[in-house]
Write a structure and sequence with these properties.
Layout: H1 2-40, E1 47-51, E2 60-63, E3 68-71, E4 80-82, E5 88-90, E6 103-106, E7 111-117, E8 129-135, E9 141-146, E10 159-164, E11 170-174, E12 179-183, E13 189-193, E14 201-207, E15 211-216, E16 221-226, E17 234-235, E18 246-251, E19 257-261, E20 265-270, E21 279-285, E22 293-295, E23 301-305, E24 316-322
Antiparallel strand pairs: 1-24, 2-3, 3-4, 4-5, 6-7, 7-8, 8-9, 10-11, 11-12, 12-13, 14-15, 15-16, 16-17, 18-19, 19-20, 20-21, 22-23, 23-24
C-alpha cells in the first residue's frame, strides 16, 4: 500500500507540474500583452507650438512610424519633423526644394511626397513646379518630378495637394493653374485633367473605390473624379451653409471626410450614396485661421493654424487637436 501510494502521488505530480507551468506561462503572456498595449497607447497633445520665424507652413502630415508631425513651408523649403513638445529637426536637406504647399505620407510606398513650388509661385514666379519624393524610412530623395514642360505657357504653376491611388500613382492639384497632374509609378508626369470644371482645385484625397475627392475651393465645391475616366467629373451635392469649399482634406478610414472650410472651421462630411451627395456631420471652429488637417490612425484631428493671407512675419505656429 505504501509503495502504491507514493507511486500514485508521484504520478500526480508528474502530470501537475507541466500543467501548472503552462498556466503560469499563459498568465505571464497575458500580462505582457497588457503591458505592451499600455506602452503603445499614445498620449496625444492638445496643442503643439513650433517656434520658427517665418516658417509659414501650409502642409501637415502625421508620421505614425515615429509619432511626429511633418510640416512643409511656403517660405523655407525643407520639410521639418516636429515632436509633441514642439522640437523640430529637418526631414529634408534638399537645396532644390525652395518652398512647398501640400505634403503627403504614402505608407504603402514608404514615401513622403512634397509639392515643390517657387516661393513666389502665387505671384506668378515659376522657377520650379512639381513634386519631390523622399523615402519615409531613410529620408533619402527618390525622385524629382517637374511639371513645367507640361504647361510651358501657364501664368501660374502652383502644385498644391497630393493623393495616391491604390496602384501607387500620384495625383497633384494645381490651385491657380486649374489642373490636376498625374505621376505614374515610373515618375513620368502627365496632365490628368484640365477640365473647365476645375476652379481653384486645392485639397484632394483618394477614395478606395477608385476616385478622387477634390476640393474645388474657388467654386466652393467638392468634386468626384474617377481615376479611370478623368472626364467624368461630378459635383458632390452638399446643402449645408457650414460648407463653403475646403482647403486641405483627408479621407478617413471610417469613410468620412474632414477638411477646413473658410479657413476657420473644421468640418466632417459623410455620405450614404458613394459621394454623389454628402452632409456635414460635425463641425468645430478653430481658435485662429487654419489651412490643412492631419489625421492619426487613432482618429485624432490636428489642424495646422496658418493664416496664409497674412503677410506679417510670425514666429509661433500652432498645431491644434480638434475634437468634435
Amino acid at each position: 500500500m505504501i509503495s502504491s501510494y507514493f507511486f500514485s502521488k508521484n504520478t500526480f505530480k508528474t502530470k501537475f507540474y507541466p500543467v501548472a507551468a503552462l498556466f503560469l506561462m499563459m498568465l505571464v503572456l497575458v500580462s505582457s500583452c497588457k503591458k505592451d498595449d499600455e506602452e503603445e497607447a499614445i498620449d496625444f497633445p492638445d496643442e503643439v507650438t513650433v517656434a520658427f520665424e517665418n516658417l509659414k507652413p501650409e502642409g501637415i502630415e502625421y508620421n505614425k512610424n515615429n509619432t511626429t508631425f511633418l510640416l512643409g513651408s511656403l517660405t523655407m523649403g525643407d520639410v521639418i519633423e516636429v515632436d509633441f513638445e514642439g522640437n523640430y529637426t529637418n526631414f529634408t536637406n534638399d537645396t532644390t526644394l525652395l518652398a512647398s504647399a501640400g505634403i503627403h505620407v504614402d505608407y504603402e510606398g514608404d514615401r513622403l511626397l512634397v509639392t515643390s513650388i517657387d516661393p513666389g509661385a502665387f505671384g506668378g514666379a515659376k522657377s520650379v513646379g512639381g513634386i519631390n519624393v523622399y523615402q519615409l524610412s531613410t529620408k533619402e530623395k527618390i525622385a524629382e518630378v517637374s511639371f513645367l514642360d507640361l504647361v510651358p505657357d501657364a501664368m501660374f504653376v502652383t502644385p498644391n495637394d497630393i493623393a495616391v491611388d491604390g496602384a501607387g500613382n500620384i495625383y497633384v492639384t494645381d490651385f491657380l493653374g486649374n489642373l490636376i497632374y498625374k505621376v505614374d509609378t515610373n515618375y513620368e508626369a502627365s496632365i490628368f485633367s484640365d477640365s473647365p470644371a476645375l476652379v481653384g482645385p486645392n485639397g484632394m484625397d483618394y477614395h478606395p473605390d477608385g476616385y478622387l475627392l477634390v476640393s474645388n475651393l474657388l467654386a466652393g465645391q467638392l468634386l468626384k473624379i474617377p481615376t479611370a475616366n478623368s472626364a467624368d467629373i461630378s459635383v458632390v451635392t452638399i446643402d449645408d451653409a457650414l460648407f463653403s469649399g475646403m482647403d486641405g482634406i483627408v479621407y478617413k478610414g471610417d469613410g468620412k471626410l474632414v477638411g477646413i472650410t473658410s479657413f476657420e472651421t473644421l468640418v466632417e462630411l459623410s455620405s450614404t450614396d458613394d459621394w454623389a451627395s454628402a452632409t456635414v456631420e460635425n463641425s468645430k471652429a478653430l481658435t485662429s485661421p487654419g489651412t490643412t488637417v492631419a489625421v492619426t490612425p487613432e482618429g485624432n484631428h490636428f489642424a495646422l493654424l496658418t493664416d496664409v493671407a497674412n503677410q506679417m512675419i510670425f514666429t509661433n505656429w500652432v498645431i491644434e487637436q480638434i475634437t468634435f
